[in-house]
């Protein structure tokens, strides 16, 4: 794709190539500086023949990348440019406005939870506040830092592995590595920790199912079959 981008003269094709590159850098290899450059290129070449919607999507995705690396001021500025360039009834204008509100609300919530941790240090209330912070980082519609969320969940597990929130924290780690960061090997390890450490948790059957699904997707059919059989035997009432 990089070779094609450097050689093609067709603006529409170039836009499609950059869009694919941005998705790879952002979603799969997590090279966020390169993703930012690609989305800047989409915005640049949109003036040469791409549609306004292509340019708007470039700004949206650029803002998402800034969120992913914790640069919320730059993200808000990017979304504001989007708002300024699009009519009030357009999806881009509404999307930019919603994303700015979500970031600002989440940052306010983050500060409140940090104060609660300090005020109730070591108590169940403080653990709940820390879990809530992880949720703020986890959500794509709020702070959108999955790796930061994982770090907070891991801190909860390390310090409070017997709390009622621990199984869900372990589940969230596997789910983020599986569904958001596209790290199947790490996801399997996280899901298996849930099954090993919290076998009676409501999340355990789902974790085993996801392990089997990952094996199946990677064509390890014998392993997938073993997991699904174990799931049937040990959790016969599991909906899946």
Q: Would you identify the regions where 5 or more consecutive residues have pLDDT less than 50?
A: none
**How many separate helices?**
12
Strand content: under 5%
Largest beta-sheet characterization = none
- Mean pLDDT rating: 95
Distance between the termini: 39 Å
Return Rg in Å. 21 Å
The ordered string of helix (H) and strand (E) elements is HHHHHHHHHHHH
Number of strands: 0
What kind of oligomer do you see? single chain
Shape: flat
Structural commentary:
The protein has 240 residues and is mainly alpha-helical. It contains twelve helices and no strands. It has helices spanning 2-7, 11-28, 32-45, 52-68, 72-85, 91-119, 124-138, 146-159, 166-180, 184-197, 204-217, 221-234. Helix 7 (124-138) packs antiparallel against helix 8 (146-159) and helix 9 (166-180) packs antiparallel against helix 10. The longest helix has 29 residues, at 91-119. It is flat.
